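Regression check, iron/sulfur cluster case 445:
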Amino acid sequence: MTAIGRDEPGAGTAAHGTGGHGHGGNIFDPELLDRCISCGFCLPACPTYALTKDEGSSPRGRITLMRALETGRLDPDDDRLRKEASFCLGCRACEPVCPAGVQYGHLLESWRDHQWRGRHRPPLAQVLMMVVERTPLVRLIGAVRRPARTRRPADGDVRTAGAGRAATNGRAPRPEQLTLMLGCFERGLFPGVSKAVQKLLPEISVPENQGCCGALHAHNGDSAGGVALAEKLGEELPGVIVTTAGGCAAHLAAVLGRDRVHELSEHLVKAGYEPVGEVTVDDGHGGRRRARVAIQDSCHLRNGLGVSAEPRALLGAVADFVPVAGDGSCCGSAGTYSLLRPRDARRVLDPKLDAVQTAGVDYVVAVNPGCLRQWQTGLARRKSRIRAVHLADLLAAAAAGRRLPTGLPIAARLPTVRLPSGMRVGRGFRLRKDAEAQNTDGWSA
Ligand code: SF4
Ligand code: SF4
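Current build output:
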């Protein structure tokens, strides 16, 4: 079979779900499904294959299952289909290594459109989707946690660099209107991130009344809903949309176009932002030393948009960047995955926690709020003194000469209380089922 070139970085996934609902046929774009030549190059890149060493939990194995579904050889209710549609992280690490240009993200979205339709969708995903569809509710979350906001969109303003310096090389900077996407959950969980962005880019406008980008829908079996929400957000946010969430950036870019959407690190580098200051920690001898910092890539930012050098360059300018094996692979957050399959999400994260501990870093930088939450929870669970921070926080702290928190976070010191119902409360006030009580399959459609 002739190899077919891959899409340019930035080609997304959202517009391709065909979402057939019958028993076999018309579920997938046949041309995309036919691209796989079963070479197996993708197997070493796949985190779920690394966990199980089971071909069925690899990209190649899942494509074989998709073909069986498409041709009607397997019934949609077949256990293997239900399990693997749910077990896949959707990290797309199988795409950059594929010589045949298989767009696995497109295929997975089409698969879940079919597999998770109606009552087959995980109930928690259904609830989260209903919440983020309601802009007033999302806005209420923001009103409580008070993320950044500006009164109204700024008029045709610029580009760089409050806390750092703009490098224009003698040229006038290109005027372009910038708007910050707040993100549904980031504005509630990490309101400081948007405020840090405002310090880095004081000209950016932050409209309060903005909805969801639709990535949650696209990744949970509602591609059409994901596209509709992204288009609506594109109308609400003028100019270039800057986002601090890699997953949202990839989905929005797929719908609105690559030039309308910039992930924060990508935008700062494109705009010539030069970080200033440095992040230091106590050296244990009464002095300060430069902090040692590792990174956690956002899967969709790295594998979907091809952005991974930019955050490394920025953090390396204000701290000692420490490359850690596997820093480009999924941390187990994967959108709603860590909520739907907490035990598997922990299994994915555990070796990465070992790696940063061995590397002796002070901070792990994330470029996606879901990854930030996953790392903070995992580090707290181990009572580690390593802290996870968002890149925006790191850069803004360096520029302001502000010290980032060190030592055990409060969440790690909280006792965990088991309730008679089997739920437990603790570590960041999380309320969830005891992960030990769940089998590895967690919920599956
Ligand atoms: S998805 Fe790509 S890398 Fe994996 S088996 Fe198919 S052609 Fe090979
Ligand atoms: S998306 Fe990630 S978990 Fe799923 S098959 Fe590809 S590499 Fe494996």
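Comparison notes: The CA atoms of residues 73 and 128 lie 33 Å apart. The pocket of iron/sulfur cluster (ligand 1) is lined by residues 36-42, 59-60, 63, 94, 98, 100, 102 (CB under 6 Å). No diff flagged against the previous build.
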